[in-house]
Each structure stands twice: as structure tokens, then as C-alpha cells.
Amino acid sequence: MKKFSKEREVQKKRDFRIWIVAGVMMTLVVICVCCAWAQMKKYERGVLDVYAVQQDGYVQLVLDQINLQEDQDSEEIVHNILETLDASSNHYWTLSDAGSLVFVKDVLETNRYKGFTQESYYTSGSAGEFIKSLQEDRVTHREITVKDQDFVASGVSFSYNGKSYAMCLLTSTDAILDQNEYLSAKITLELLVLIALAVVVCGGFILALMTERWQKECQQIKGEKQVLFEKVEKMNHLRMKELLFHPRYSAFYPGALPELLERMEKKNIWPLEMVLVKCEKGEQRDEFMSLSQIYLGKKTLRVILDDAHVMLLFMREESKSQEEMKKFIESLKGEYIKSRRWEEPPEESLKKEFVSFWNGGEEDGK
User: CB 334: neighbour CB atoms within 10 A?
Assistant: First the structure.
């Protein structure tokens, strides 16, 4: 339960870190977008201001051309000058006399608004204020709205043939910005930068998620490896313990024999057979012990009695004749001395039976 709570707490911390990273990245994106948008608007304003100044110069040239006319008896001369200039829905001239429109864009548009006051054409507040603010022989400009369309307007008031006229040149802001190649290139570059920034931010966020996922997988694999390692260690320990106390790989000394015989009686390991073997300590003993590891099973115990004798205890093994036992012991490079077998528990304890067996004659029957 504690382990589960700890893992859950660690998971919450990881999720919290991911949301922090995501929040920081999204905040950076919003800030960068807002800054880019503000800079774009600032740059557009600068482009419009530069164009307005150039447009003021153009209006001033037209005004100078009008003022240079020697014959100023008719306003047709002004009409003719304005009609020779380029005009479109995004770029055109207007001329008003004492508040009445006398020229708008071209002949067709002029006829359409003939007799209209300039207030009926410049209906928006910004346009009306601009018309009222025009100064005589001094060109000024302002951004205005005409018929729901934004324009950069350059205008001037002048006197001609004893009358006061207001002349304006209107250019759509959309046309100015759309036809500006430098601005288009700058916008394209800024969009590329924004896209690159978005890719970096999104890539960083995705990388953070993938890193978190890899960490989880690594933690899971590490935990599984730890469990497997513990299981392997446990199995190795059990195996070593089994090998350590396996009858085939271990031998007992006389001090452990009384307790060993007592346990054998309690476990009811009958039939039991004791075989006394003579093998001198040294090379013969080593050879006997090595061969006995190979040919004796797990139901046979070896007890080293002294430097010259080893006793074999066969538990629940089939009975062999004396000759067969001698040949078997000789094959193990030992010398058969005697043996005794019990098919069922003896009347005396095994301890006493062993003393009798050890102190008995050279050979005991079965």
C-alpha cells in the first residue's frame, strides 16, 4: 500500500512538471505571437506613414500644376488635370467647391455624385474631421474611412478663379500594404519564424512527453529487473543451500552422527543399511569421495568416522547381497568391511545399534 502511494505521488509530481512545462511553453508562444502582432502593426503604420508623405508630395505637384495655369476662368481645367491622373476603386481623387462635390474619381463617378455635398460622401467621423481640417496651400494627410473602407487621404485647400476648393487623393490601405513587396517579404519571414518557433515549442513539448514516457518505461523495466534479480538471487540461494546440504556433495563427521541417527528414526526411513568402508585418508579417500558423488544417490549419506573408515547409510534402497555390495564398494575404490540392514525399526535405538555395529566383528550379516 505504501509502495502504491509512493508511486502515485511520484506520478503526480511528474504530471505537475509536464503541465508546468506546457504552461511555460504556451505562455512563451502567446507572448511571442502578441509581440509579433504588435511589431507587425507598428511596421504597417510606418509603411502607411511613409506612403502618406509620398502621396502628399504627389498632391503638392498637382496643386502646383493647377496654380501654374494662366487661364483660371473655368474649373474645367482642373477637371481635365484630374481626369488625366490614374484612378481606380483603391486610388482616386475628389474635388469639392464650397462643400459641393464637383469631381469624384472619374466622369462616371462624378455624374453619380453631382449635386451632393461633401458631407454626404465623407460620412464617417474621421473623414468629416479630415475635410474640415484641410489648410490652404498646405497638404496634410490622415487615415479615414469611406464607405466602410480604410484610406490614406492626402488633401489641401486652395483658391481658384475666386473660389475655394478642397482637393483630396484617397488610396486604400489594403492596396498599399498588399502591393508592398518588402512588407510581404517581412511578413513571410516573420511567419516562417513563428512557424519555426511553434515547431520548436511543440517539439519541446512532445519531447518532454516522450522523455516522461521513456522515464516511466525505464522505471518499470528497472522495477521488473529488480524483481527478477531478487527471484534469481533467491533461487541461487536455495540452489546453493540445496547443493550445500545435498547428500551427494556433503559428508558428515562423527560429531553429527548421533543427531543424524535420531532424525532418521523420527522420519521412518526404513529399510536402512549401514555399510562400513575402509579407505585411507589421502589419495584413496579423495578418489572414493569423488566416485561416490557420481554413483551414490540422494538417499545415501556418507559419514567420515576416522582417518581410515567411512560409513555409508543407504535409506530406502533395495537390498543387495554381500558379494554385490563388495563389488560396488570396490568400484568406488574402497574396501568393503561389513554391513548391517534393518527392514523396520530395531528394538534398540539406532545409536546403540551403531555402537554395536562399530564394535562388532569384522562382518555382520543382514
Answer: 26
All cell numbers assigned to 162: 475666386
Residues 355/270, Cβ–Cβ less than 8 Å: no
- Residue 68 phi/psi, 5-degree rounding, is -80, -10
Strands (E), the chain: 91-97, 100-104, 140-146, 149-160, 163-172, 272-278, 300-304, 309-315, 335-342
Closest CA to 357 of 331, 339, 333: 339
Burial class (CB in 10 A: 0-12, 13-18, 19+), 218: exposed
**Is the entire prediction scored with pTM above 0.70?**
no
Cell of 46: 510606418
3-state SS class at 302: strand
Mean pLDDT of all residues in 286-296: 88
Residue 103's CB: how many other CB atoms inside 10 A? Answer: 24
Rounded Cα distance between 357 and 274, Å, is 8
Q: At what angle do helices 2-67 and 76-83 cross, to 10 degrees?
A: 140
pLDDT in tens, 229-254: 888 888 877 766 555 556 667 788 88
Q: Are 253 and 304 in contact (CB under 8 A)?
A: yes
Collapse the DSSP code of 235 into the 3-class scheme (helix H, G, I; strand E, B; otherwise coil) and give the result. Answer: helix
